[in-house]
Amino acid sequence: MTRQTGRQWLFIGATVVSLLIAIIILASCGGVAQTGKAKTQHLSKDERMEWWRDARFGLFIHWGLYSVPAGTYKGERVDGLGEWIMNNAKIPVEEYEKFAPQFNPIGFRADEWVRLAKNAGMKYIVITSKHHDGFCLWDSKVTDYDVMDATPFKRDILLELSQACKKQGVKLCFYHSIMDWHHPDAQAPFWPNYNDTSKSNPNFGRYVDTYLKPQLTELVTNYGPLGVLWFDGEWIQDWTEPQGKDLYAYLRGLQPSLIINNRVGKGRQGMEGLSKGDDYAGDFGTPEQQVPPEGLPGVDWETCMTMNDTWGFKSYDENWKSVEELIHTLADVASKGGNFLLNVGPTPEGLIPQPSVERLQEVGKWMAVNGESIHGTTASVIGRPEWGRCTVKGDKLYLHVFHWPTDGVLQVPAVPGQVEKAYLLADKKRTSLPVAAGDAGLTVSLAPEAPDAIDSVVVLVLKNK
Ligand code: H79
């Protein structure tokens, strides 16, 4: 045994002390990281869905190469949805790719799009990172078939939007197609019917592992935190519910607070969109171009809808919904406890079509006065009265009067509690409106003129709520 000198003891002592300090520092850092992680990972579904349920209104953006042909191929108008032109006109992959050098949307201003959505009262934006045609709106590392590498524009559209959204406090979300008509390991070989559900690609697993998942990792990691990942194109034969569940778990692992729609797996019931049951992956149902006839207690759902008849830009689609129809649909959806995701299809110049801009501005004017009756509300507790709809928040009932009573008397079904006060949401002075007991509920006396020709909101403040 060798004897230690005093000097050596001093050295060993110092080493032990510094090791101990290092261990303490490491452990405490680890502890902090652990708690942070644990906090987000243990978000309950209610906590995770809170912002989304409060939002009630979002902007859908369908944008990609299909905006270049804009519904016309080789001089012929192509029936169907604008973003489906590659399939509907049976365009071979190498022909469709030729739209990429023509995609140069120099009019694109991310800040203006986000401001337009925000001023309309929308709290989130869902944009197509990739639609069925396979073209990508960001600088993906696993393909050159993206805006950065294949177009003269060479700007990362999703990056610019993510920065604008962050600045303006709007949640950014991505629509991502599982189906891919451009990828040789996915549906590209199925031409002339890329959507042929009787066909299978033996290499589909390779597409999932080396393309789909890496791309989604890029999106969540480099453009996040995201609000929602909104999947579509899940009906193809090669996609299974276990793959949906695996993808769901993988993405939540990357970002625990992420919200994912039910089209990640096989759970949706056709265009009605609601989930078949709790055994399927996904956080919310996705009715497409329709509103469920009744409210669905305890179910999260979002109706997505076009303003005309197409999602992706078609130059000659002028079948625009009226501002009245849009506001009524928004109130209808909110009164049934759902979200409304309203679509625009920008042009290849990077502009949101003027009829869409005008409609969003008009809805925004209504929301500036009446947004309180939409944001943070839950479903009606008095059904669907024939004059309109009802939404609820805290001790307040918001009566959306679409059809103003000509006799100035609004018949309201029985409400759960005593009415303390009634007033018009548009009335800053909150002048009390007379309330009386009615036949099967109560009556509210109104001025002969509706304050809003489309939807005037009467607030009932309840005592016992
Ligand atoms: O992105 C927009 C459309 O391009 C896309 N969804 C919106 C948000 C869309 N993809 N397909 N469709 C709309 C219509 C196709 C429906 C069908 Fe099926 C696919 C009919 C049969 C397969 C899905 C599965 C609906 C019913 C069964």
User: What small molecules accompany the polymer chains?
Assistant: ligand H79
N-to-C SSE string, H for helix and E for strand: HHEEEHHHEHHEHEHEEHEHEEEEEEE
Beta-sheet strand percentage?
Answer: 15-25%
CATH level 3 topology of the largest domain: TIM Barrel
Which strands sit side by side, in order, in the main sheet?
7-6-5-4-1-9-8
- In the CATH hierarchy, what is the class of the largest domain? Alpha Beta
For the CA atoms, what is the radius of gyration?
27 Å
> What is the residue-averaged pLDDT?
93
The residue fraction in helices comes out at 25-40%
Which structural class best describes the helix and strand composition?
A: alpha/beta
Instruction: Please report the total strand number as a whole number.
Output: 16
Low-confidence stretches: 1-7, 9-39
Question: In whole angstroms, how far apart are the ends?
Answer: 82 Å
Sum up the structure in keywords:
single chain, 465 residues, alpha/beta, TIM Barrel, Immunoglobulin-like, 2 domains, 7-stranded parallel beta sheet, 4-stranded antiparallel beta sheet, binds ligand H79
Structural description of this entry:
With about 475 residues, this protein is of the alpha/beta class. It folds into 2 domains: about 1-375, TIM Barrel (Alpha-Beta Barrel); about 390-460, Golgi alpha-mannosidase II (Immunoglobulin-like). The chain has 11 helices and 16 strands. The chain has helices at about 5-40, 45-55, 85-90, 95, 110-120, 145-150, 155-170, 205-220, 240-255, 325-335, 355-370, and strands at about 55-60, 70-75, 75, 125-130, 170-175, 230, 260, 300-305, 340-345, 390-395, 395-400, 410-415, 420-425, 435, 440-445, 455-460. The strands form 4 sheets. The chain has a 7-stranded parallel sheet with strand order 7-6-5-4-1-9-8, with helices on both faces. It has a 4-stranded antiparallel sheet with strand order 10-11-16-13. A hairpin with a 2-residue loop joins strand 2 and strand 3. Residues about 1-5 and about 10-40 have low confidence and may be disordered. The site of ligand H79 has 11 residues, from loops.
